[in-house]
Amino acid sequence: MPLTEFQQEFLRNCSHRWNIKTGATRSGKTYLDCAVTIPKRICAARDEGLCVMLGNTLGTLERNVLEPMRALWGPELVGVVRTSASGNIVQLFGRKVYVLGADNKKHIARIQGAAFEYAYGDEITTWDEGVFQMLKSRLSCPHSHFDGTCNPDNPQHWFKQFLDSDADIYCQAYTIDDNPTLPPEFVAHLKKEYAGTVYYNRFILGQWAAAGGIIYRPFADSIAAGDGRFLWPADKPCRPWRIHIGVDFGGNGSRHAFVATGILSYYAGVVGLASARIDPKDQDADYLAAQLIDFCTAVFARYGEIHYIFCDSAEQTLINHIRTRLRACPLSWLADRVQNSAKIQIIDRIRLTSILMGGGRFWYLPEAATLRDALAAALWSQKHPGVDERLDDGTTDIDTLDAFEYTIERDYRRLTAR
Q1: pTM of the model
Q2: What is the C-alpha separation between 86 and 249, in angstroms, rounded?
Q3: InterPro entries, from UniProt (predicted)?
């Protein structure tokens, strides 16, 4: 695939200590690195120090960078990650390269004490700041270079502050329209999915934009207008392919929440089928289990199947009690389908819901009224500048949001791979 003019401009100017590409998703930032930048840097290394690659996690680094490189260059030049006594290592173009996750401070110890001749960073805004600060002190060879990419985040993000510093930085910012190789219909769909949210500014326009106010603005506006845009059509039978139930446990002023979600065939979308909130005040575990069994019974009576129940993984005692009670009821087979929530990062759950709504792939039924209200009222918190956080001060229904997200989070990649 020929390089765009914007990509060629980067190659002409990436001789600085820090060479960064920020901007829209799918704008060609990482492709350039896989095809040219990383191979060129590694082949030019002079053995002054280590070569290192860092990503949010090893999984995302493999998916975002190593797999595409392997597809471009073949397995002979791009090996697989192997674990050794000195860490995770991959052979790239005949040279040993260390690979690290950068999402947690515990990874700092893995890079202390070594000098880096070359470092590559993927999804930098998702890193733990401490890892990046340690990286700065390790990039100490005469020939040291860092290449990296990220999507923009909050303008107060620590990495944006670094980009605005007087360090030796070449930074190039992309919009989605800077990649002319993308099919126009794909770009149009992506713009539609993010329309009306902070993600449009970040992932389409490539802007560092603050998250503020209502999280799901198009949904909230639709509910306020009463236009029924997200309501499943009354004249269309709802026949989900999979049915998941999410359970969030209340406490300290919050409530238990149950949400039943239907996953449509081929992951075409999701439907909020039913939802409920239960006040845990003066009620014991038996009461909670009985309420959940009643909820599941109603869902099963209408749809004839429940595939999984995903519960807040922080409450193992309650989960075990629910399994015990299920085994003693007519829905006994459900006991073996009770699983822990995956609890992926909240910001990723929010992004997934935004994509579904923006793409016209989220609906709800009248029986899911508490879910409807929770989504319409969800707000960004302004408590910590520079950090995207959902407001969780008791004024909004976080419990129902969590329960809903438990039902779809395990299918994140499938639901976003359209």
Answers
A1: 0.85
A2: 42
A3: P-loop_NTPase
